[in-house]
Amino acid sequence: MTSKVELELEKLENFERVIIDLGKRMHPGNTFPLDILANAVMDRSLHLIFGFTSLLRTENYIGACHLVRCHLDNILRFSGAWLVENPHKFATDIMNGIQIDKIIDRDGKNLKDWYLKNKLNLEFPWVTNVYKETSGFIHLSKKHIFTSSKIKDVENRTLELRISKSDNYVTDESRIEAILGMVEITKVLCHFVEGWIWTKNNTRIK
Question: Residues 173-184: pLDDT tens digits?
Fold first, then answer.
């Protein structure tokens, strides 16, 4: 792994300070159910971010890419709070163990993953592509074949196979692409939390 990859990892890890600062700003006084949910989302995000960076540094690209999807799942489900009639009931329902895909939004639609993905993609057009690409790491797919093999000699039709804990067939470009995906997802998380903080500070919440 090159210094260029390490630099991008450090940029991602710098969001720790941003997320913790948002948490402090979110809790100046009264605590609402959505605060508790947002707190859980931010806490999970930091675990995922640092799990991701640790895995990449130990050359475990496949393991790291699983966490990109988890990070995206975090904001997909959190975004449901902006689609329902009562965000605090949404948060309370989750705390009570109700599955998010059983919850109905203000248009009468169940908050299934595909629906949340399509809704979020309207505002952030890269979401669908990242969702699709990271699904290939969650389920056995061609991505696992391409990270465990490479063409050694085209003319002689020779294929080199690998069974290893290290991702020595993965390029730095692929690693950086995954890091940038984590960065963009984290920015969306911050966007939602910033919006909630603004709402708390500027409206009367019942």
Answer: 999 999 999 999
